[in-house]
Amino acid sequence: QFDGSNDKIIDTTTNGLNVINMTVAAWIKPDVVGTNDMVVDVDNAAGNDGWGLRLTVFNIYDGTNAHFVAVPSGNITANRWNYFVGTYDGSTIRVYVDGIEINSTDDSFTPGYTSATPQLTIGAMYDTGTPGNYYAERYFDGLIDEVRIWNRSLTAAEIQQHYYSNLNKYDTDKWAFYTNQSNLTGGGYNYYGCAKDTAGNENCTETRALTTDITAPIINEVRCYNSTAWINCSRMAYGINLTQIRVNCTDIESNVANVSYLLTNLEDNAVKINASYVTNDGDFWYYNYSQLIQDSGNWTLNITCTDSGLLQSNYSENWSLAWGVLAPYIVTGNMEVARNVSFNFTVGVNCTD
């Protein structure tokens, strides 16, 4: 936590900070924005040399003049973590916030340094006119974490990956790498991790494969078999033997994992089929039933197709089987009854299809 008044971190011993091509990055959580607060500063007391990444500008000095790219207002937000990056590749100065380039300036020059070990300051700006002093108005107010400096200009893709990632030291010699990728398109990806020391020695993990699935499967066709032919299920009539239900389901990005079937007669509130199957013949999925249709009224068939990424598509078909003819009749014959006297009689109903 930097208090915006006099807090700072100073390092005068680090070699290799007099870089020509560069990337400077840090996670910052400022209490206020819109100021010249310094995040990372590298320079000497001798004059206009080194560079500095501030909330409003990324400055690089050539020994005489300042070369810079401004940070447009509104891109850095107070009271939340921002991934703030400045780069220079020998011809263009760029700034990024949260993995996205927000401004750039074409400018070819050579950064100037008056020492092989310029002073590194985090959270404040060295006053080159008064050695040992710091600009009072440029102290950082907020949090700074994971300051990183490269001697090359990282690509936009690399910066975006760093924004998605996090590196934590959880033991004296062990680090944990975490990444949270967003908005990947569907398809296959390969990934691996590498570690390189200051001597240039590097080791990498094996390459691993990852498949992303963002497209649900497609139900192309649903048919019922009536012991003779495959027909639309809505054509199943009363008294017909339903022997199979067939579903054609495909997926362009992954594999279909299973198909579920739910067949219901609404009037009787009767569930005739409620099953999920993982067996198939190519793109066709079958459910064996072999039962007579012996209920009239409204029927509903619901199909759900699920792929290996757990994305689903649904299909529903409704149909109605006509009721039979209802013919009432009196069981007992004619009878004589008195007025205002209760009596019993019996009736029946004939139901024919």
Describe this structure in words.
The chain has 353 residues and is mostly beta strands. It folds into 2 domains: 2-178, Jelly Rolls (Sandwich); 218-321, Sandwich (Immunoglobulin-like), CATH 2.60.40.10. The chain contains 1 helix and 28 strands. The chain has a 6-stranded antiparallel sheet with strand order 1-12-3-8-9-10. Strands 2-11-4-5-6-7 form a 6-stranded antiparallel sheet, with no helix packed on it. A hairpin with a 2-residue loop joins β13 and β14 (174-179). The protein is elongated and about 125 Å long. The mean pLDDT is 86.
Structural class: mainly beta
What would you report as the Rg, rounded to the nearest angstrom?
Answer: 38 Å
CATH topology of the largest domain: Jelly Rolls
Total strands: 28
Query: Strand order across the biggest sheet?
Result: 1-12-3-8-9-10
User: SSE string, helix = H, strand = E?
Assistant: EEEEEEEEEEEEHEEEEEEEEEEEEEEEE
Helix content: under 10%
Low-confidence stretches: none
Chart the SSEs and their pairings.
Elements lengths: L1 E2 L5 E3 L10 E9 L7 E6 L7 E4 L2 E5 L4 E5 L11 E7 L3 E6 L2 E7 L12 E4 L18 E10 L5 H9 E7 L2 E6 L7 E5 L2 E3 L5 E3 L3 E5 L5 E8 L4 E2 L9 E10 L5 E10 L4 E8 L6 E9 L4 E11 L4 E10 L3 E6 L16 E6 L1
Antiparallel strand pairs: 1-12, 2-11, 3-8, 3-12, 4-5, 4-11, 5-6, 6-7, 8-9, 9-10, 13-14, 15-18, 16-17, 19-20, 19-21, 21-24, 22-23, 22-25, 25-26, 27-28
